[in-house]
Amino acid sequence: MAAHCQVTGAGPGTGYHVSHSHRRTKRRFNPNIQKKTYFVPSLGRKVTLNVSTKGIKVIDARGIDAVVNDLIAKGVKL
């Protein structure tokens, strides 16, 4: 599963592991992606989304219908 949120578009960031001796090695900061299923009344069916925890808060605030309409307008296949 790709580490990208379908709602916010959040993706992985990069940085360094820093040891006690201060040596640096590359690492990835993945967003907290969850697979969530929502019932969308306007479509009359369930929709499964890969969303970050911030994306879940956006859905709670705006409503699933508004978020799904924005995704459809962007051309995301649901």
UniProtKB/TrEMBL annotation:
UniProt entry keywords in alphabetical sequence: Ribonucleoprotein, Ribosomal protein
SUPFAM superfamilies from the UniProt entry: L28p-like (SSF143800)
InterPro entries given in the database record: Ribosomal_bL28, Ribosomal_bL28/bL31-like_sf, Ribosomal_bL28_bact-type, Ribosomal_bL28_sf
Region Disordered, residue ranges: 1-27
GO CC, alphabetical: ribonucleoprotein complex; ribosome
One GO biological process term: translation
Molecular functions (GO terms): structural constituent of ribosome
Pfam families tied to this protein: Ribosomal_L28
Keyword Ribosomal protein in annotation: yes
NCBIfam families xrefs: L28
UniProt record similarity statement: Belongs to the bacterial ribosomal protein bL28 family.
Name recorded for this polypeptide: Large ribosomal subunit protein bL28
UniProt source species: Auritidibacter ignavus
Gene (UniProt): rpmB
